[in-house]
Design a protein that fits this description.
The longest helix is centred in the middle third of the chain and has 7 residues, at about 50-60. About 20% of the residues lie in helices and about 35% in strands. It contains three helices and four strands. It is an alpha+beta fold. It has helices at about 1-5, 40-45, 50-60, and strands spanning about 15-20, 25-35, 60-70, 70-80. It has a four-stranded antiparallel sheet with strand order 1-2-4-3, covered by helices on one side. The model has no long low-confidence stretch (mean pLDDT about 85). It starts with a helix and ends in a 5-residue tail after the last strand.
Length: about 80
């Protein structure tokens, strides 16, 4: 969310956060902003451009991003498997 508020802003537009559980009990976190690009996604995940996405990856999240007609969605999926 912090990354979106700093880098994904478009004047006058909202940032959305959606949190859900999947059928497999994974935690699904979507952050949606109105910019359609994310040219340095891999560098951000690797921790070369701050630590936000990198920290989420260190918790075992699978990270991805997807452009769409209204902007983009950055998604984190954390496994929910229980012992």
């Amino acid at each position: 969310m912090r990354n979106a508020s700093e880098f994904g802003r478009c004047a006058g537009e909202q940032i959305e956060v959606r949190i859900a559980r999947t059928e497999n009990d994974d935690l699904l976190i979507d952050v949606i902003d109105r910019r359609t690009d994310f040219p340095s996604f891999e560098q951000a995940v690797a921790g070369h451009l701050g630590q936000g996405l990198w920290r989420i990856a260190q918790y075992g999240a699978t990270l991805s991003w997807h452009p769409h007609k209204d902007g983009k969605t950055v998604r984190a999926v954390l496994g929910g498997a229980r012992p």
